[in-house]
Amino acid sequence: MSYNQPPQQPPWGRPPQPPPPSHPSGAPNPYMPPPVPPSSRPGWTRKRVLLPCAALLFFLGIGIGAADGGTASGQTVSEKPRPSVTVTATATTTAEPLPAETVTARAKPAPTVTRTKTIRVTVAPAAAGDEEEGGDTAGGSAYYANCTAARAAGAAPVHAGDPGYGRHLDRDGDGVGGE
Fold this sequence. Notes:
With 179 residues, this protein is mostly helical. 17% of the residues lie in helices and 2% in strands. The protein is elongated and about 140 Å long.
């Protein structure tokens, strides 16, 4: 079995190609696109050279036009603005003070608001030898239903061992009720 190698290009380049087929009458083939003439400049020239040059010329023109300043408004270069004379007159008048009026202020007494709150305090009779858990340990006979009642009676804060101390008054369990 023999092995055929693919044909190689000759060292001097590609072989010439035959011209595209044309119509028998000599007119170009209507199905073939017309040949594109090679451009004289590469495509990147417009982006990299022409557009920045056009922008530079544009900004130079703006700078030159702005520096000219006086010729655009109709003045010639030889005309220079001249200083003008301005007269300013200042008149100073002093106002006389008006006579002071004496005003006497009298303080009105503030209205007195008195609030009374009635709190019913229930006192449990103390029994000798009958001690409840967290009840009276000093032998007093005071009982407060809540911290508000203890404050109203003037006993708040109630410490453990004082008359009227109860665990229901001491939520955090630190021995002081009605805080």
